[in-house]
Structures are given as structure tokens and as C-alpha cells.
Amino acid sequence: MLGHYVNLFTDFGFKKIFGEESSKAHLISFLNTLLPKKHQIQDLTFIQNEYQGATVLDRKAIFDLNCVSDAGEHFIVELQKAKQNFFKDRSLFYATFPIQQQAKKGDDWNFKLAAIYTIGILDFVFDEDKNDPQHKDQVVHQVQLKNQHNQVFYDKLTFIYLTLPNFSKSENELETLQDKWFFLFRHLHRLQEQPEKLQERIFNSLFKQANIARFKPEERIAYESSLKYYRDLTNVVDTARNEGREEGREEGREEGREQGYQKARAEAEQRLQEMVLKMLQAGLPDSQVMAITQITADELAAIKEQQTCQA
């Protein structure tokens, strides 16, 4: 069952609500609940670059955003819908590219960098935090470089991680705009209608765009594939964690989880190929197939060639 509205943790749902030009107002509203007053976003543009995700699956979950504040200051936000396997390593790795891409050619560059925020949206809780009372109910985690005296060493690089499973407020308890966005991440795909507490104009637009009944046939195919991948990946992670817990060894838990991820990733790549072939068979042009699935022209050509060899 697909439900009435998309799951925002799926790659398709995340891109549909936050990653399109028509979705910019949603993205700005959400991000401004997390950013400091001096960096409230007035406008943003999506940065297209070759480093934006090493694989097709990562490209669906990472947005680099060139932002302008109310005061006219430019800064960069990298939005990651995080995966569990080696999350901290993955997050740090992709955060390096917005830094490097600010470099200017020539000898006159003075190395002055614009501020960068990396925002990770997590549908899981770090293992090390699960039994820590200090982090039990914490949703927003802010990380910066600090010295041994706990003083901020560099204030232009900030990581903001959202452990959304820790958000437990019900609809009646929602007070702030941030509360409402967190509630949507956790519950949008379970809702039957737009809640009374979420009747602002920004959410009217979101619920309209998230309504599965309004999807085109090719969008529905893409969402079904994305939802199945998300569910399979979640099941794999839960299984690996349980097996690791039974073994009682952190090494076994991590190894089992990574093996599960590799299996789920291979299955997801296979389903992606099947989805592409269905779209092509339905007569969709190559440009539309690439736009929906976020594959490159070379990847599309490889899928076609593989299908020809198997025919």
C-alpha cells in the first residue's frame, strides 16, 4: 500500500518535496528552522556538480545549495538524507567538495571561504547515543571544530544532524515551525488528510505536491521503486543490528550491517534498471527518464546495451 502521501525518507519523496525548482519554498522554510539568524535564507539555487554523489543512489540524497541571506551574504548548505552505513565518514567526505569548489584559479585567491552548513537528515539514532541519557530525546545535534578548551576553532563549517526518531511530539503538541517540519518527516506517509495544525500556506503547497494520487504514471513507478528500496534497506539494517546484538560484538554488528547494505544496494541497482526499462517501454523519452531517475546519459546507454545483449 502506497498511502496518500509520499514518504519523505525515500529518495523520490525527498527530491519531490525538496529537490525541484517548484519545491524551493518548502526547502527554504525547512532550512530556516535550523540555521542561525544571520544566515536565514532569502533565496537559493541548486549547485550542479560532478561530485554530487559518487553513485546514482547518493546523487538522489545530496543537494548542494548556494544560499543568500537576508543581508545579502552568500553561504553554502549541503543537505544530505543520510544512510546508516559509515554515516559520519560519508557525511564528512561529501562536505569537503563544497569547500574545494570555492577555490579560484590564479595566484590572487586569498583562501577566504564562505560559510558551509552540512545538514544530515537521519531516520536512525547513532548506536553510541542509544543508551546515553544525555542524547535520549535530542533531535538536533550541532557539531563544529573545537580545541582542547572546548572553544570553537572555526565557525564557518557547521554540521547539523537531525535524529528524527527522537522526535516524539503528537499533532496536538506541535508549537513551532520546526516541530511541524519534524512531524512531517516522521508521519507524512501515514496521514490520511492534512492535519488542522498544518494549515499554513507552505504546507498547503507541500500536501498538494506530496499527494500520490496526483502523480503521473512514470512518477508513480519511480516512487514505488524508491519506496521498496527504502523498506528493503530498513529491514536489512534491522536484521544486521539484531544479529550483531546477539553476537555481542561491535565488530560483528558493523560487519553484518555493511554486508547487508551491499546486498540491498545491489538489489536497488537492479530495480533501478528495471524501472528505467519500464519507462522506455512505455515510450518516455530519454531526457525524461534521466530526469526522473537521476541517471546520466552514459548510465542510460549502459542499461540499454545490457538489455540488448540479454535479448
From TrEMBL:
Q: Which domain of life is it from?
A: Bacteria
Q: What is this protein called?
A: Flagellar assembly protein H
The family database entries (InterPro entries) matched by this protein are listed as:
RpnA (IPR010106)
Against NCBIfam families, the record matches this protein to:
T_den_put_tspse (TIGR01784)
**Regions annotated as coiled coil:** none
Instruction: Name the keywords, alphabetized.
Output: Cell projection, Cilium, Flagellum
Q: Where is this region: Disordered?
A: 241-265
